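ARCHIVE ENTRY
Sequence with per-residue tokens
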Amino acid sequence: MRGIAGDLTIRPAFNRDGDGIADLIALVFGDYPGCVFDRAGEFPELDAIADDFKADNGRIWVAVDDQDRVVGCFGVKYDITIREGELHKVYLHPAARGRGMAQKLMGKALAWLGQTHPECETVMLWTDTRFEAGHRFYEKCGFARTGESRILDDLSNSSEWQFRFDFAAYQGALKF
């Protein structure tokens, strides 16, 4: 998909969106040297993506064009025991960037998290150290690096940084 057809719509993802999300992730990975997309080995959840998020008290959304092609995705899972949300599958097609779509997807996820899990205290995420544009986006949205990092045992030899956001303070600020 080179261009994006028409206006973009955000909707909850269905299991059938796994192939479109896989294509999107593969496209984004292609922009980063050394990033290898291995769906079967490292992304089996894409075979039932909506069920995967639901099983972890979460939800995933997709941005689609007027032909229902996935051009963005954004998910959040929630750990009830530690009152923490975790962002997952945050990807946006290069042709969809610069339109405010990432902020809209983030807003949708945080609004859902606050409505569904109002006791949530923090939101965190792990992001590949190579995804510098993503780091700037998270920081612009109020996330801060925690100083924690991890190395994954994957084909891309990924190293990730953790970011965290004080969700309780965010929710409190929305109530004034």
Notes: The helical segments are 18-29, 39-42, 49-55, 101-116, 132-140, 167-174. The CA atoms of residues 126 and 162 lie 5 Å apart.
